[in-house]
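Input set for joint prediction.
Command: fold jointly, output tokens.
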Amino acid sequence: MATEVEAPPKAADERVRATGSASRLLARPELGALVGVVLVYVFFAIVAADNNFVSMTTLASILNRAAPLGILAIAVALLMIAGEFDLSIGSLLGFSGMAIMLLISPEDAGGFGWPLWPAVGFALLLTALTGSINGLLVNVTKLPSFIITLGTLFIFRGLTIAVTRSLTSRTQLSGIDEVPGFDLAGTLFGTRIELLGAKFSITIVWWVGLVALATWVLLRTRTGNWIFGTGGAVDAARNVGVPVSRVKLALFVTTALAAFLVAMLQVVQVNSADALRGTGLEFEAIIAAVVGGCLLTGGYGSVVGAALGALIFAMVQQGIVITGVDGDWYQVVLGSVLVVAVIFNNYIRRKAATR
Amino acid sequence: MSAQTDEAVLETRRLSKYFGSVIAIKDISMLVRPGTVTCLLGDNGAGKSTLIKTLSGVYEPSEGDYLCDGEVIHLHSPRDALARGIATVYQDLAMIPLLSIWRNFFLGSEPTKGWGPFRRFDVKKAKEITRDEMGKMGIDVRDPEQPVGTLSGGERQSVAIARAVYFGARVLILDEPTAALGVKQAGVVLRYIVRAKQRGVAVVFITHNPHHAYPVGDHFVILRRGQVYGDFAKADLGLEQLVQMMAGGAELENLAHELQREAGDDAELREAVAVLEQEVKAVAAEPVVVERRADVVSDEEGRPEG
Ligand SMILES: Nc1ncnc2c1ncn2[C@@H]1O[C@H](COP(=O)(O)OP(=O)(O)OP(=O)(O)O)[C@@H](O)[C@H]1O
Ligand SMILES: [Mg+2]
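tokens >
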């Protein structure tokens, strides 16, 4: 029946074997994490079948846990792709939350008594500034960011605790909901969305939106190309005209801003800031990025992968809680998941490259 | 002299570059004119790469002046040089192994479309141009998505050259661009150099191969131990002389004598030395049939085509 003649195929290159979309998918950095998500979910679905693991409420709990870590992991992944680390991100989270609370707390409580939005704006500025301190130190000293930010991890945390305690003689401040102008903040950062009987935090919306934005930046903008170049071979990138110092500085500020956003979300949601908040989070964010396929040495990785890494993290946490396993075993399981995921990822990547 | 200075795109005046106690180049004065090919020649470690890295903004000179269009300039990064239309093929190629061909091709000079915050990398255009430009070099890119790290050495070099030719609007600097290339691709690069020159681009060409340098060069600057050893216009220099100078003719003869002494009464070695002596003489009396020799030399580099 077909009378139409198909256009003659473009002369195919005899050195190219059709590898199909399956193999292309295999070559993507986030594939390992995607498989990991499915495996971990299925595992707990079976092990914790009696405890209702497969349910809307559990899903909501998992996503609510994953979202804040996921937001941090986005920024950490971008930075890792550019070949750098930010170990101070947990401290920055504590810092920015406390900055907001200190600024809005009434003067008789040791605060500054600022109105909400100016306080938020100023805290944002301060956090960006601290982030740029990381970036400038790395750019100027040319030392590994691992060491620099290990130092600032303690500096920022120590500063937060010391300043807070000396001003207010406490390490925890609460009461953001009493400040005028809270309504809008409550909506933007504190809304809970009811869906099929479960409560989903608005943090998830921020997370998904930022994953999309960061993916677009990484894959479809000139900045993204620069990020890959900077992490892949920094001298080569500089020699072909990539402003590598600017790229790194911008990314350190980005991780600081991610920490600020998460701090803001938490301050509004739990109505308090704690000088110790975010402790240990830097490692969780790095784990999420690595599980998500980012190369520790830079130049390779994906934002979606890092998001999936955060999801795995939250599933393991929630799975352990829900199965009633003694919480003491949590770290053992988590460490195992990390090691297995990285081995698996590596295997997949090599397999894909040699197919 | 002043007439020449006026027309030079790039000029260095007693330019020196030190790395701590190492004097890599010292008091280099040279002119790079539009529409001419300046060949930069010299032994390993003579300072050629250091000089061109200073020209392309990788290093800032320790002493001396660097002039562009007759004005003293200070390049702080290669980005500054690119902004002036100075593009470079580095000896180490400056490629990102994990990145695809098209991303490498445009790294640092990405074409964009869209406006304001929606400005984005024009991926389609980038892939097309990459394929076209590589095709012009005689390299048929299978898949522009292929990571550069998995390309063959010559293919990788071709990407670097195609990229520099594409972006080198005024000055094109090539540091041993033909080192890893097959006969055909080396020929293409030489033709590129000539074509760029005809377009009025100033070309700085570094090579260890006199048979690549002589046919395309207008002007030969010979470096030795970080200093200018000779500076010749083509009219003042025959191929034989150039070959002699690059091979260090007198030094080669000394080497032959030395070997002869060492050979003692080992018959086989004596014979080998005799052959070497013949070759040294042949180098000096090289016939100036450039085309044919170019092929032979490239064959000896051991990279037959395909
Ligand atoms: N970053 C550096 N630090 C210290 N010394 C250097 C540096 N770069 C180059 N040198 C030295 O400067 C001298 C010139 O090096 P350069 O790379 O310019 O030589 P070249 O002429 O390009 O050699 P080749 O033909 O082998 O490429 C060498 O002795 C080298 O050891
Ligand atoms: Mg060199």
